[in-house]
Design goal:
Blueprint (H helix, E strand, L loop, with lengths): L2 E6 L1 H11 L5 E6 L6 H10 L5 H9 L5 H11 L13 H13 L2 H12 L3 E5 L6 E7 L8 E5 L1 H5 L4 E8 L7 H8 L3 E4 L4 H5 L6 H9 L3 E5 L14 H11 L7 E5 L6 H13 L3 E5 L2 E3 L5 E5 L1 H9 L5
Parallel strand pairs: 1-2, 1-7, 2-3, 7-8, 8-9, 9-10
Antiparallel strand pairs: 4-5, 4-6, 11-12
Helix pairs in contact: 1-3, 1-13, 3-4, 5-6, 8-10, 11-12
Length: 317
């Protein structure tokens, strides 16, 4: 496999990129830009730039595995302590923000950091401007049927209610042109794993990205989460994750749904999942992709090596 484009954000995208780097010659990460918390939120509010945190994590994931690359990965991820103005800021966030201010362009800044790190590939924002996520949430009132809007990535990710759907503000934002080109020119495009409503589904609210996914000749792979997340997807079954894709991007086709073989084991549960997958034109592929601890128990995270083997084994459309 030559070229993989990975859509997502946060720790889920980090795992996918760590896997992809071992099986592809060229990798592009297309990253969400709606974070409004922590260091990213501060940079976003104070400088008006896209939040750099998820972009920084993607750069760290693609850093070379030699000693110099690991040094840069550690440095990018390092956060300042103390109580001063720098407290809580990640070094990589400040590098991206500084280069963006100097060069006047986020994509140019990210490309410059990639060159500094010796990365084989690119890290791109899915949209060239910061976005907000607004969710429809139930379960916040005594009447469980009442739907309330919750705005902001941190608020949506931590809501005690259950998210029904999301939208981006502003609605129908433009895509970064280089991200569209990366999807159209890839051999494989992955979506997920990650926080479903704040890292995965936001890509499907950008019309140009959806059109690129619809028109690409790449193998389109959805990597399902291993566990449901409190708040965002509490109580979600595997097939409900797929229903959310169909709801947020009606008509979009997918080719493969990659599922950990031990996460969905029952015959009836697999039947429901495969029926949901068929609704988006996809085949379900079961594989061992979960990380195991020293006692052989699943940790709830994807193992990059096992995920890489599973992705490499997927056939072309």
């Amino acid at each position: 496999m030559t070229t993989i484009t990975c859509l997502g954000g946060g720790h889920g995208l980090f795992a996918t990129l760590c896997a992809a780097r071992t099986i592809a010659e060229d990798i592009t990460a297309v990253v969400t830009v709606a974070d409004d918390g922590g260091s990213s939120g501060r940079i976003r509010r104070e400088l008006g730039q896209i939040p750099p945190g998820d972009l920084r994590m993607a750069l760290a994931a693609l850093s070379p595995r030699d000693a110099r690359g690991r040094l840069w990965e550690t440095t990018l991820q390092h956060r300042f302590g103390g109580t001063g103005a720098l407290a809580g800021h990640a070094v990589g966030n400040l590098m991206i923000a500084g280069l963006t201010s100097v060069l006047g362009d986020e994509v140019a800044a990210l490309d410059e950091v990639a060159r500094l790190l010796g990365i084989r590939g690119r890290v791109l924002p899915m949209c060239p401007r910061p976005l907000e996520i607004e969710a429809e949430v139930v379960g916040l009132e005594e009447d469980a049927r009442v739907v309330r809007p919750v705005r902001g990535q941190v608020a949506v990710a931590s809501t005690p209610g259950q998210v029904r759907r999301i939208r981006l503000i502003p609605e129908q934002p433009p895509a970064t042109p280089e991200a569209v080109a990366a999807i159209r020119g890839a051999d494989m495009v992955t979506l997920g794993p990650g926080s479903w409503f704040t890292s995965v589904l936001p890509h499907l609210q950008v019309p140009e990205l959806v059109a690129a996914l619809d028109g690409t000749e790449a193998l389109r792979v959805v990597v399902l989460n291993l566990v449901s997340e409190p708040g965002e997807t509490a109580g979600f079954s595997a097939e409900r994750h797929i229903h959310m894709i169909a709801q947020h991007a009606p008509g979009l086709g997918v080719d493969r749904i990659l599922v950990d073989e031990d996460t969905v084991r029952g015959a009836s549960e697999r039947s429901y999942l495969e029926r949901a997958a068929a609704g988006v034109g996809a085949e379900v592929v079961y594989a061992a992709v979960a990380e195991l601890d020293a006692d052989g128990r699943a940790t709830g995270r994807h193992d990059p090596r096992r995920l890489a083997a599973a992705l490499a084994g997927l056939g072309r459309r």
